[in-house]
Amino acid sequence: MTKEKIVLAYSGGLDTSVAIAWLKNKGYDVIACCIDVGEGKDLEAIKEKGKQVGAWKSVVIDAKHDFAEQFVLPALQAHAMYEQKYPLVSALSRPLIVQKLVAVAREYGATAIAHGCTGKGNDQVRFEAGIHALAPEMKIEDPIRDWHWSREEEIQYAKDNNIPVPITKASPYSIDENLWGRANECGILEDPWAAAPADAYDRTVAIEDAPDTPTTIEISFEEGVPTAIDGEKLPLDELIMKLDHLAGSHGIGRIDHVENRLVGIKSREIYECPAATVLLAAHKDLEDLTLERELAHFKPIVEQKMSEIIYNGLWYSPLMKSLVAFIDQAQAVVNGVVRVKLFKGNVICEGRKSPNSLYDKNLATYTSADEFDQEAATGFIKLWELPDKVYAQVQKKALATKQEQINNKGVTADAD
Amino acid sequence: MTKEKIVLAYSGGLDTSVAIAWLKNKGYDVIACCIDVGEGKDLEAIKEKGKQVGAWKSVVIDAKHDFAEQFVLPALQAHAMYEQKYPLVSALSRPLIVQKLVAVAREYGATAIAHGCTGKGNDQVRFEAGIHALAPEMKIEDPIRDWHWSREEEIQYAKDNNIPVPITKASPYSIDENLWGRANECGILEDPWAAAPADAYDRTVAIEDAPDTPTTIEISFEEGVPTAIDGEKLPLDELIMKLDHLAGSHGIGRIDHVENRLVGIKSREIYECPAATVLLAAHKDLEDLTLERELAHFKPIVEQKMSEIIYNGLWYSPLMKSLVAFIDQAQAVVNGVVRVKLFKGNVICEGRKSPNSLYDKNLATYTSADEFDQEAATGFIKLWELPDKVYAQVQKKALATKQEQINNKGVTADAD
Amino acid sequence: MTKEKIVLAYSGGLDTSVAIAWLKNKGYDVIACCIDVGEGKDLEAIKEKGKQVGAWKSVVIDAKHDFAEQFVLPALQAHAMYEQKYPLVSALSRPLIVQKLVAVAREYGATAIAHGCTGKGNDQVRFEAGIHALAPEMKIEDPIRDWHWSREEEIQYAKDNNIPVPITKASPYSIDENLWGRANECGILEDPWAAAPADAYDRTVAIEDAPDTPTTIEISFEEGVPTAIDGEKLPLDELIMKLDHLAGSHGIGRIDHVENRLVGIKSREIYECPAATVLLAAHKDLEDLTLERELAHFKPIVEQKMSEIIYNGLWYSPLMKSLVAFIDQAQAVVNGVVRVKLFKGNVICEGRKSPNSLYDKNLATYTSADEFDQEAATGFIKLWELPDKVYAQVQKKALATKQEQINNKGVTADAD
Amino acid sequence: MTKEKIVLAYSGGLDTSVAIAWLKNKGYDVIACCIDVGEGKDLEAIKEKGKQVGAWKSVVIDAKHDFAEQFVLPALQAHAMYEQKYPLVSALSRPLIVQKLVAVAREYGATAIAHGCTGKGNDQVRFEAGIHALAPEMKIEDPIRDWHWSREEEIQYAKDNNIPVPITKASPYSIDENLWGRANECGILEDPWAAAPADAYDRTVAIEDAPDTPTTIEISFEEGVPTAIDGEKLPLDELIMKLDHLAGSHGIGRIDHVENRLVGIKSREIYECPAATVLLAAHKDLEDLTLERELAHFKPIVEQKMSEIIYNGLWYSPLMKSLVAFIDQAQAVVNGVVRVKLFKGNVICEGRKSPNSLYDKNLATYTSADEFDQEAATGFIKLWELPDKVYAQVQKKALATKQEQINNKGVTADAD
């Protein structure tokens, strides 16, 4: 009898290697699937290891380009920041990974998908909600949430199943990263009063160690898409990675966040997002120049909802599609160049220009070139203030009437 | 016959000195009223000058304390940032000034109030809407908007009326400041592609000139009010001014913003808000630790509306009262200390603690102390993903049915 | 050894009577607690029955007044309508019941609370979230969700434990009601294409059977609280019940809603809310007259959030407190009288007046009494339209430039 | 020398006929342009009259179809209701009219456009903002706002310029209508306490006069577009007009609204919107069945903003485009049939079905067919309530600690 096939999101690490054995022992043919979203993985080595530790099939996918174009870009254009702080690093890669896992499952006729998330994080929700939004019929396995092992028990199981156990001491941290950033939790970071130690960071230098000379670059945008740095055109994934390296070297992008998880707890996270920090600032700066006021003032409402939706694992929801349609529509005019100074942890947008700039010097100036109709202001103010002026008049009169009634009552009472 | 009295918002500068003459010539007894909101004015000298240039009465008011307590504090607690960038420096002082002007007008039986705003800025709206919200019956004069003079004509009028004309060359900039920050526009700043030159700044050093050693401070909050720095209790206005100096010396708080004015144009502004930048970051950081999730996620909607309302001159509107009530209610638990590192333009909240901290290490930890019920997660995910899973099932089936209908039609068509 | 005490939300029906036996068998001393929120229960009979079927203690509470004042009123003032249709009947009574259950538990030193909700509705969430928000240490039992019995098994258990079983055939419907309305689901209602049959309704006549003559009443409000009908002052609970009867007799308040439950499914519900329908319409009508525009335009955002929060069982959340503070603050001016015509299912607010009315005939009129400054309009329009006018100019020019560039390229190309 | 051409929005009535003369006398060649948006105008007669009273050119346009498809439909799909009451009748036709006027202006090389709005309504803003958003260079004339005439003066001017003056007494009302409804203001309606008299209505019968037998119809929707009534396919404009007549005959669609005008005053308006009332209810009902929860809960935020934007004359703003993109995206699944009972002023959606229905009887049922996983609920509740439970625990502990500190201080004090 042929076995059921399962696709496992495989990282090459101990947990998911043990998961291969565990799923095999449960009766599955395991398709190990490793997806590179910009961590700089050695895909060939991981492919090999997947086979070695018992996968029926080992598949690797370089998804950096798709990740940048389809997932990072909408988030950038929506200035997606969960709780105004976190640029949604892991939350963005999950739906990309899910998309690839489902595609592999369909290619090989697999009936189940497995991931290696713990039972207290957001990622389990993102994986499972994502998978079922694309493939509602798919069975899901989560070995790590299921096996309830201590570290020691896991290592014993690994040995029993011929899974190589790394001899280096495990990092105190739990890390996830991709080209949009790096997330770090656990260990000393679990004390929100403690400053994150130096070894918690990897993609950014400390400000102390950043160069004493700034780097100034010009970032070009076409319809809301960053397309070039200093005039050099680059595919989005490459542009991000190049900028990430540069900004990280100036100590840019460190974020220290006590955040509300979807599963109901607060957790303290250290993020490093050098490229994201720069691009989010530059894109906003260009929108400040090119977006019409009413749109600029409503877009943050849409942005906040999109941030929550992404964080909460609902990338493939119909609401997300509508939110993206809103944002997309707004990007046509976001063309131009932002000059950004990277220096000692700071992203300084010091100049911006655009063929679609709504800044009109002749309207804004206080010089004699002024074309603004100052007479119009008096009319504007009269109607603008009218509701509150009437309100003030009415409440004043209402108060006086009430006082009069009280006084009159007093008089009547006296007369009795 | 007794003359009508008018209260003029008096700064001691040329414009409002000329305005005294202009209003006098129009038939008013002018009460010059100078209000200090933290610019460090020499109030006595201004009082004297007011009288000298012809005011019927010259009044000065130190309003720093009221400004901090009644206007800056609600804005801080609401993280008020117009267009996510500008902490509402001038927009906050206008209602305070209006409040004082109206009080003076009532004290002296004045029937009119005058301000010296131009006809293309937001401040004229803030003054007039504010005055009429407090005193709907009050007449308003705006000499500068009315007189339509060139610089030369103004100087001639000054000379004709014995108003001393400063001999120093006029600054190219138009500046407004108070203890919450400094706003600068005009001159070279009217070119949004040009970087703001060094002389555009006054309260912050350039990052290049900031010390190479960070300063780390602990800011204490009680019910959302910053009450102490490094344990030293200070009245809010003093705390802000002390912190402003300190943060400014580290190059913190420079903001470069192309913003949408209420009067319909975009303008480019350079702000310096050292204390505001630090306090807004620290207060948000403490809220991240102490606010419950649903409140934390809705508060930004309220914050954005409040920012707009303040910017647009509607401080004294009934909506403002309701927004403040919302924010107030949320502050009871915002107690604790945030440890902030000030360094090279960066505000780094590196630790925070609170008796009301909702961060629970035993729930968040990945160690054996874990008290989180990981079993609950599977149930949670099932119901969380249910709407989108059903959605996926239904659309899949609907598509299949539609396809079948098309196919069947094909068959029928063939059969014909 | 003394037993643990548990407070059970007791209705007097079969399910909760069996629950008494079940909890007793589990080792608890059961305190049966029946709370009247306006269903017109015979509290004494239920108290007696509670004891009869084995409760250690039987407690009854008439909570109609508290329910109206503390729970219905804030919802009315916030125009709370879940998904713009459902006035939150059951969702409002749950936190009141929870409050009473916790108070009884504390009075008797009980360590647990039990409710009788099924495992697929919203009420289980409302009970449990509510209890833990007031008493996080409290143990919770939900017998019905736990025992997994068929109807037959439940009846057998009842017989085995001497619980009287009603001989009348069970209703096909599942009903919950209180003074704010009546909710009905199940049976034929589970088919959303089927019209609700006559027997699904209880508090409203069919429009066909409603009188051919309207009833016109005047409802008075003081600071947003309905205080009198036709001048007769009534406590809020009595006013609601009186109005409910009257409006129901005119066929008012039937609602047919396919709604999204918190637990992830859609369900079809039939509500009858005669009084709620009238009061919500009248209160909104009076707010239209008395609320200033900006407040009137933001309040719905707050209202919608509050509706969701209440529906989702988070009455005792800190967000709810802030939302209520916002609404409260807005009610001071909601004074006056609304004249309402009740007729054939229609609630027609045909006249309204208020000492705080912001409607100013002399501003609104088109007669010669007009005091509105029509000149001001031209200035207003100029600034109002300015952002979009500049936008149009810029895009027109940008397009032309782009076209020109394309043409020039063409020329250059030709020249090559 | 050739004269400047101006396009005038021409209705055939006295005001705009006089305007032709006035504009001619001002030196323009006047192109009278009459646009039918469903008032049932005699276009040929108006065209003739335009020429008669002196237009250089007289143009008529039947725009009913365009109006329905391009303007009414997006508003319907967005459930656009200003202040939750007014379906934006006039506000919707203005941008359509503007679009046609600009097209005619471009066709004939006109440099100006004239409208006949008064200086205190919203329509002047909608015309002028709309014109400049499409044609920022266009000059605008508003004769009625400019000429400041009394009725008598206007009639004299008409006589002097050979404009025929109607002999019937002028209506006390000011009316605007199109296929989406009818708006009425002025006269007795200016007293918000007075009920609107019978003669204020035209398209609806009084409920008293509505038939005693209901009409039940089935309305079909395809991707959010109403396409058929009782299976009969109709173009949208015809469907609306047919339904309008039918619903009006049942007394449906009367609205009595004290609303906030953009120009800062409150005004009392009587609307009749029979078709709009029915279609808005039916479309919402079908969305309740087919929209996923998160989308259904955010869409009202978008809807409210769109309603304001339309009301405020910003149809052609970039924000509007983004809002429409959001709504559009959501309509793909809004397919199906709603069965609606029209009776005595009531619109009763009593049944609805859809191939995209998300209502799943097997999930919702309380019968044995139940497929809902009730076990999952306990896990869901645990995580759902967790933030508020932790909040309760923390505040309880914080309070206790504070109390203890106070007590200890007491002890210490005593000890001194």
Automatic annotation (TrEMBL), chains A, B, C, D:
Matching SUPFAM superfamilies: Adenine nucleotide alpha hydrolases-like, Argininosuccinate synthetase, C-terminal domain
Nucleotide-binding in keyword set: yes
Top-level lineage group: Bacteria
UniProt KW keywords: Amino-acid biosynthesis, Arginine biosynthesis, ATP-binding, Cytoplasm, Ligase, Nucleotide-binding
Domain Arginosuccinate synthase C-terminal stretches: 173-391
EC number: 6.3.4.5
Binding of L-citrulline, residues: Y86, N122, R126, S174, E259, Y271
Compartments in which it is found: Cytoplasm
Protein name: Argininosuccinate synthase
